[in-house]
Design goal:
26% of the residues lie in helices and 24% in strands. Strand 8, helix 6 and strand 9 form a beta-alpha-beta unit. The longest helix is centred in the C-terminal third of the chain and has 16 residues. It starts with 26 loop residues before the first strand and ends in a 25-residue tail after the last helix.
Amino acid sequence: MTTNSLAAPGTSGASGTSGTSGVSGASGTSGTPGTLVELSGITRSFRQGDLTVDVLRGVSFSIAHGEFVAIQGASGSGKSTLLHILGLLDSPTAGRYVLDGHDVSHLDDDARSEARNQLTGFVFQNFYLIPYATALDNVLLPGLYSHKNLRAQRKRAEELLHRVGLGDRMDFVPARLSGGQQQRVALARALLNDPALILADEPTGQLDSTTSADILDLLADINRTGKTVVVVTHDAETAARARRRIVIRDGVIESDGLHGDGAIPPPGAASASASSDGSSGPSPGPSPEPSGPGAPA
């Protein structure tokens, strides 16, 4: 696989944007030049009976176009809730979120779904492939909501499957694919709409060590094309593959810094990497992320 083969046609690289013309319902804003993600004072609280559980407490950081970032935290740290906000699966209780120049802090459900489809691509631990659909049809799924030419989308899906090494498995349903192959299908699906932001939630959690390394290599390849990649994980070895690691604990950012050689940081990445969560000293006791209906896992 060539390191630039996963780039989408017309991708503008690390300093560019995804090329979306606009997001319905999102307020336009210039944002910080070269910055894809800007979180300012993000909080997220949930009601559990008579109690209010504060899962995120004043999270602030920026991610530049083209960065490879790991968000690391233990169970109950708030990392899953943060992922859901980054990926527009949920909205913050308070604070401001600017994604690719759009204020997406408090969109209604329809506008958030549209923005999510245009601006983000997801890779999940459990793959979430449709069991009765072929690999090709699974990759095509995001295109059903993009209003793009179906023939062009099909051609792109085929190209992406070739590029992740599954050109001879396009007609296979997930049950006929290994775990690593299913995750490759998920990666191709995430890239179909040429999103600005690739989010990977514990992408190696169901895989053996060798296959895990292959998937992380693919994510690094995607990053080298200029795509912004954010991996959310509890695992220090997985986080070490990213160029930058943000550690979250008890709903606040504990540390944020560059390290390792997992990817080449884009120009200006260092200036966008400063965390400003504003906390100091020991944090209060843990606020476990709620589970059950209506709450992110």
